[in-house]
Amino acid sequence: MVLLSLTASHRELDLDALERLSTGSSSVGRVVVGSCGPVAGAVVISTCNRFELYLDVEAPLSGDAVRHATRHVAELVAHASGVTGDVAARSFTVRTGPEVTEHLFAVASGLDAMVVGEREIAGQVKRSLVVAREQETTSKTLELLFQTASRTSKRVGTDTELGAAGRSVVALALELAERELPPWDGTRAVLIGTGSYAGASVAALRARGCDDIRVYSQSGRAEAFAESHGVQPVDSLVEALADADLVVSCSGARGRALTAQAEPSPAGPGARGLVSEDGPEASLGHVLDAAALVRARERAADRAGDEPEPRPLVILDLALHRDVDPGVADVEGVLLFDLATLKAHAPAVAHDVVAQAQGIVDRAARRFEETRLGREADAAVVALLDEAEVRVVAEVADAVMRLTAELDARGEPAPDEADVEAIARAVRKRVHAELHDKIVAVRARATAEARAAEAALVHGAEALTMHASAQRDAGPSRRR
């Protein structure tokens, strides 16, 4: 088996392109395993700043084969996400063999993150494996790969300052927001969404002294989340926004099949607005749009009474599939930070800290590859041992038959159990002694074949990446 990965992240693409590419991420793993014969397993990582597909592919494959396989996978991703096949193919960086291992371990450890050292990604890597198990798309090799990635991430977190810094997308967002907010103990916060970022946001807000936290979920999970996290659920997002200083939106619900508006939009029946799962009509609008926010700000102004203006509102949109309409930034008294803003403000990390973490990742990747290649060789050795055991049984039976005939000719009793055991020990010792050189040769050949297959994949991947780079350079420039 050979490892193959296709990666699209904030490093290669602008966030708009990444958002389009990852739209169909929930079904890609099943589709690829179900329709691409050589693929024995698939695990998908889809986060706010990356979309990655890890594949366990039957080897050996030639360079041409990997180009065709990668193109096929890109077409499947394109179909699921609604982009063209050329766009999907150009968007991916292709890695094979040891490169896949090192990259995943770096991702899980926060070294390839928008905010270097962020810890949320470790949980997202774990959850991606859980989803693959539920969808029955994982494999033994991918299981071991992802479990080892999680252990490596934990080691980086405990053995380096990178893990002690508390760095995350949520933390960076709150650092940017606090300049525009009242003191944290007087800040009123509203969360949109109940996923992992929402949980991380509750913890981060409380660590800063914010206790007035409410949660809204258009999927109906607000009450359960509120109960488990000790916050207040809200049914009306407009009402909550009218009384809020800070909104942290991280539902990622845009692009799903949502339903009719929870409250009528002041812009009219046809306008996009707040959506819930309580109505009969499908919608692909933003969770929060400018019209709904204007309504909330009008309510805030009414409540302010004689005050010159309502308190300003800071909105953090942490969802890759943007929860918040960018037009919200034009509403008076509103400040919007989205992922593009956070990417621009992501702080640097000391070189020696990154180097220490990278060293842990490199060593773990080498050990994993040695173990994986060893397993490839072990399979060949097991087959050789099975063959030797068949030979031992046959030779022991033949020796016992000859001894029985000799004893019978002399009028002596047939061999007893002790005689048979002695013959078996002698035969097994001789066969295994002869087997030593064969085992050494088989291990060397199996390891060489595995490396040769990976070398062919690397050559194909390099060619594909160069072709994609050429297409990117030749195409129109993308907005960054």
Automatic annotation (TrEMBL):
Substrate binds at residues 47-50, 118-120, 124. The active site is at 48 (nucleophile). Its EC number is 1.2.1.70. Keywords: NADP, Oxidoreductase, Porphyrin biosynthesis. Possesses an unusual extended V-shaped dimeric structure with each monomer consisting of three distinct domains arranged along a curved 'spinal' alpha-helix. The N-terminal catalytic domain specifically recognizes the glutamate moiety of the substrate. The second domain is the NADPH-binding domain, and the third C-terminal domain is responsible for dimerization. PANTHER family: GLUTAMYL-TRNA REDUCTASE (PTHR43013:SF1). This is Glutamyl-tRNA reductase. It comes from Promicromonospora aerolata. The lineage of its organism: Bacteria, Bacillati, Actinomycetota, Actinomycetes, Micrococcales.
